Amino acid sequence: MSDLQELAASFRSCCFATGTTSGKYRCEPTWSWKPNPFADYDMWYAVSGQGRMLLNGVDHAIGPGFCYVFQPGDRVAATHNPERPLVVFFCHFDRSPYGSGDVPAAALPLPRTPVTIRDTAGIESLLSRLIELSHLRSPDDAAEIDLLIKLILVKWVRETDRGADAGHAYYQKQIVVKVQEAIRFRLSESADYEALAASAGSSPRSVSRLMKTHTGLTLKETITKLRMERAVHLLNETTMTVTEVSAAIGYSDIYTFSKLFKRHYGISPTAMRSGGESFAP
């Protein structure tokens, strides 16, 4: 069983609730942190700044994206560079049993090593919402708090697993996804390979190679595929004419559009529309 599967299994027996201490703070110039060993869990994330942390006797550098979930019994001491002060999110939380019964005695199956989160915007959005709800302390927010804590824990464990991803495959997949998103927003425009590659901070040649490696399609083939998928959606779910669909996905020549569509799906767009056939690409 993987770390992520083990964590997910532990979720079935308990729900989570925040403690009384949480927030987002800029650490004071003379800040030096040495709390007593933890009795609960503490989600801790560095937004910016520079520092050092001694965690259970092991030294770690703190920088933007540094994330760790302190667990009961953890011993920690931390300092920072006052010229580059740490800005941190933190949120104490603990477990409660579902229904009747006791909270499982075993500790949560969490990594014992900090990780640097790469999707900083995603994790910071979740932490901001969690802390906001923690401060509101409304009983109506309990379910959302439980789900937010679980989602943050899942993202943290997944990021820990990705830290050893050989060849930076995770980064490469992120580039592929970013380019695909950029294509979807530009379907009606002529293909601009330079602009698409720039959206992911890369070159057309590098992007095309990554696309081929991870999807089996070149950049040009990906553009065509995504255009055809959008065409299916528009033909299935809108009242747009075939001519309008063709123009909407970047084909001024309806003949070219129809030819490519039939090559992909074995049926012309006109036949799909008139015959009422509906399918997912």
UniProtKB/TrEMBL annotation:
<dbReference type="InterPro" id="IPR014710">
    <property type="entry name" value="RmlC-like_jellyroll"/>
</dbReference>
<dbReference type="InterPro" id="IPR009057">
    <property type="entry name" value="Homeodomain-like_sf"/>
</dbReference>
<dbReference type="GO" id="GO:0043565">
    <property type="term" value="F:sequence-specific DNA binding"/>
</dbReference>
<dbReference type="GO" id="GO:0003700">
    <property type="term" value="F:DNA-binding transcription factor activity"/>
</dbReference>
<keyword id="KW-0804">Transcription</keyword>
<feature type="domain" description="HTH araC/xylS-type">
    <location>
        <begin position="177"/>
        <end position="275"/>
    </location>
</feature>
<keyword id="KW-0238">DNA-binding</keyword>
<dbReference type="InterPro" id="IPR020449">
    <property type="entry name" value="Tscrpt_reg_AraC-type_HTH"/>
</dbReference>
<dbReference type="InterPro" id="IPR018060">
    <property type="entry name" value="HTH_AraC"/>
</dbReference>
<dbReference type="InterPro" id="IPR050204">
    <property type="entry name" value="AraC_XylS_family_regulators"/>
</dbReference>
<keyword id="KW-0805">Transcription regulation</keyword>
<keyword id="KW-0010">Activator</keyword>
<dbReference type="InterPro" id="IPR018062">
    <property type="entry name" value="HTH_AraC-typ_CS"/>
</dbReference>
<dbReference type="Pfam" id="PF12833">
    <property type="entry name" value="HTH_18"/>
</dbReference>
<protein>
    <submittedName>
        <fullName>Helix-turn-helix domain-containing protein</fullName>
    </submittedName>
</protein>
<dbReference type="InterPro" id="IPR037923">
    <property type="entry name" value="HTH-like"/>
</dbReference>
<keyword id="KW-0963">Cytoplasm</keyword>
